């Protein structure tokens, strides 16, 4: 067995295990929803709608899925409940493929030393933001990239200490200043150091406050403007980290942050400890912002590039 086939198998095992609670919950609910039924009728569709909504797929996305299932059942006259899982898998995959966002996450992509790819990471405290940064740094370094981290969440001493620890684990440098320093100054120093040392990737941590959208917007805009003084195209990516275990609250956080700043990609964490993994489907569909990464466990390699087809196949396969 070659390395890549082995790695693909290992990745699938991590994905399957990480989604196991959601899969068990969804399949259990579907089984109860269709007990005693022999065809996909209105009762089955109503029950299926409830299953998807309570699995945190979201109301709007659920209604789209139900409409597609209904149309498919009407077209294929002999469709029965035994085929419902396959039907769900096909229609959810088709729905996600029709979005305007392609699977775009990668740990290994072309870079130019001295002109690093800059990722600014945003998200509320407690969603796994700093942990995600550490795991990203590990994965990028494993792919052969020279990585710099910037500790621009200067409002919490613990945030800086946590990032420094993740930098140690991933064996990448962390640029920091004293607690209470200007976050934009930290971002500037990080980019200047990264450019001078021919780095490939820079990841900037930011404060996780959301109580004041105007204050948050001003702070993030200032960080962006200061980074552009070093690299005119920076940041190349504004990555919003969401906690998948919070279900519908993750939708609300996505709404608030997309209003406060221009979010270009998403990472959804903590999917291994929850039955709310359906939130990935709803967020991917509703926000038309690519989900680049998903967190499936505590290990350094448990942050995976999100692939819509693999995700749906694992959930309904």
The pLDDT mean sits at 87
Overall form? elongated
Number of strand segments: 8
CATH architecture of the largest domain: 3-Layer(aba) Sandwich
Strand content: 5-15%
What would you call the structural class? Answer: alpha/beta
Please give the largest β-sheet: 8 strands, mixed
Number of domains: 2
Looking at the structure, the CATH topology of the largest domain is Rossmann fold
Q: Helix fraction?
A: 40-55%
What gyration radius follows from the Cα positions, in whole Å? 21 Å
Strand order of the largest sheet: 3-2-4-1-5-6-7-8
* SSE sequence, one letter per element: HHHHHEHEHEHEHEHEHEEH
Q: Spans of 5+ residues with little confidence (pLDDT < 50)?
A: 1-7
* Cα end-to-end separation: 24 Å
| CATH top-level class of the largest domain | Alpha Beta
């Amino acid at each position: 067995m070659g390395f890549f086939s082995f790695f693909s198998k290992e990745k699938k095992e991590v994905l399957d295990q990480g989604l196991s609670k959601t899969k068990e919950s969804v399949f259990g609910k579907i089984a109860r929803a269709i007990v005693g039924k022999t065809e996909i009728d209105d009762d089955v569709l109503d029950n299926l709608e409830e299953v998807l909504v309570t699995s945190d797929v979201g109301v709007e996305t659920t209604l789209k899925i139900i409409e597609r299932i209904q149309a498919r059942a009407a077209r294929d006259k002999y469709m029965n409940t035994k085929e419902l899982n396959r039907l769900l898998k096909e229609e959810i995959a088709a729905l996600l493929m029709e979005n305007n966002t392609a699977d775009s996450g990668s740990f290994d992509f072309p870079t130019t030393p001295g002109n690093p790819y800059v990722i600014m990471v945003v998200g509320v405290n407690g969603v796994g933001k700093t942990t995600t940064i550490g795991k990203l740094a590990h994965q990028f370094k494993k792919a052969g990239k020279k990585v710099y981290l910037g500790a621009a969440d200067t409002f919490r001493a613990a945030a800086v200490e946590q990032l420094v620890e993740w930098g140690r684990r991933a064996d990448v440098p962390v640029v920091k200043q004293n607690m209470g320093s200007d976050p934009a100054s930290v971002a500037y120093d990080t980019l200047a150091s990264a450019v001078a040392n021919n780095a490939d990737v820079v990841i900037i941590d930011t404060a996780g406050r959301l109580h004041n959208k105007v204050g948050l917007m001003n702070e993030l805009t200032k960080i962006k403007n200061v980074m552009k003084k070093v690299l005119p195209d920076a940041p190349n990516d504004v990555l919003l980290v969401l906690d998948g275990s919070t279900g519908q609250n993750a939708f609300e956080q996505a709404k608030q942050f997309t209003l406060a700043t221009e979010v270009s990609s998403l990472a959804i964490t903590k999917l291994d400890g929850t039955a709310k993994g359906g939130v990935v489907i709803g967020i991917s569909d509703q926000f038309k912002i690519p989900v680049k990464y998903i967190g499936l466990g505590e290990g350094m390699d448990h942050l995976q590039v999100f692939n819509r087809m693999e995700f749906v196949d694992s959930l309904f396969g």
